[in-house]
Amino acid sequence: MMQSQSSTRSSLRRPPSGVLRLAVLCAAVLSDRLPAQEPFPGWDAYVTKAMADWKVPGLAVAVVRNDSVLYAKGYGVQKVGTGVAVNDRSLFEIGSSSKSFTATLVAMLVSDGKMRWDDRLSTFIPWFRLADPVANAELTLRDALTHRSGLSRGELSWFAAGVSREEVLRRVRHLKPSSAFRSRWEYQNVMFLAAGEAAGKAAGTSWDDLLQQRIFAPLQMTTSQAVARNPHTIDNFASSHRVARDTVYAIPHANMDDIAPAGSIISNARDMAQWLRFQLGDGMYDGKRLVSSAALRETHTPQMLMGRGGGGAADSITRFNTYGMGWIVQDYRRQLVWQHGGNTDGMTTAMGMLPDAKFGVVVLSNMHGSPLPGVLMSYLFDRQLNAPMRDLSGEALTRVASQRRRADSVSRTQASQKTASGPPPLALAAYAGPYTDSLYGDAIVSLNEGRLTMQRGEWSAPLEHWGSGTFKWGTLPSAAIVELFVKFDVAPDGKVTSLSFNVGADTTTMVRKASARGREGS
User: Fold this and answer.
1) By three-state DSSP, how is residue 162 classified?
2) Mind listing the pLDDT tens digit for each residue in 18-56?
3) Is the pLDDT of residue 15 over 90?
4) 3-state SS of 104-117?
5) What's this model's pTM, rounded to 2 decimal places?
6) How many helices and strands (H and E) does the chain possess?
7) Of 94, 154, 249, 420, which is most buried by a Cβ count within 10 Å?
8) Torsion angle of C-alpha atoms 283, 289, 294, 297, degrees rounded to 10
């Protein structure tokens, strides 16, 4: 009866049923689209030219303003040599931008009363140990999330190591400190792994499931994943790329599972726009609070000074750099910025916000170590702030070209030194055999068809003699380690006893020595 009365009352106003169906269909289609009209005049042309200049195959951008998605669009291709276009749903590795997710998960558990920022990590992982007795006794979640543990990066303890997350955390007890505990900011991926695993323990689940339950599902990040364990089965997943001598080529996906809370998330422009909305919304999303304001703001609060070396601009536009928890907190043209980029082997991400303007940007790309995402983020910040027009991409290209000329000059000098160094001091067979180390695990040096190769975990590459018993170990597939030189140590009796190598920029405090066993291999 009520239905009949309602139908009678509305019959004069209701459009024909076919029109209604069309309207519903159009609404559904429109609701599934995010704005693709350029956010500022000339943006599309600028991006297209910059991609060509920087040789970036594919890129996706999202822009958020005032809790609305202003723009989301893909450019270029997912893989060179194919016609598969990038769109706003194309998935990319976001690398260390994942750290903001891990820090926010801890903030959520702080909100729940299951964790406190200054709880010791050993509360949640009782077997966790560090070499420094002071840090071992006092290391807290806040220490782990602010890069102030005193540890060097020790990237080869996990990169391409083929071990579990637990094994990486057990190995860190052998990583010697490079500075005094809490004395300085020093980037450290394993500490974020520890914080993420501790969060999973506190919640009675895993970091992966916690991420899905507390962030991805509530924020409707429907296609984002914690880890790309089987990349070939993932639809719309961009391929990783490198460039050599102006030639762009695709490379295999690098497994990030063993360091996941520090950098394994894959996402897209559409989903990352929701992440920006949530962060700019002070922990609210579509009217629902997901984390307390106080806990989330703590992640955005400066905890450690970084200095000019930590994500600073190339000029005076940025005057200070600090680290919160999972976020770099700095200024840009006298405006507060929260940002965190990400690099994996073959992909680069820039993600940042102007919180006072309620403005956020994410730029995802499938090129290794490309400056372009950060350049485009700054360009969009400039447009939002009505700053003087500058060709930031062109300026950065000029700087990089100058840096490359200097690097090429150094490479030519090294090559001439290598040529003049002569053959190795021992027969190649003398270097072959298994080697082991408590931190970096096992390595096998083998001799095949007159060439030495070293394999460690999932990575194998030739050893090229560089002089005086030192060999260059291929080109490492790492965003943090550009090249690695291996030196073989020889006892007075002429037998090879060990090998040593330096990792990262600190070539003194990051050296780890591996003792060889069975050195007389073939």
Assistant:
1) coil
2) 443 433 333 333 345 556 688 999 999 999 999 999 999
3) no
4) HHHHHHHHHCCCCC
5) 0.87
6) 14, 23
7) 94
8) 0
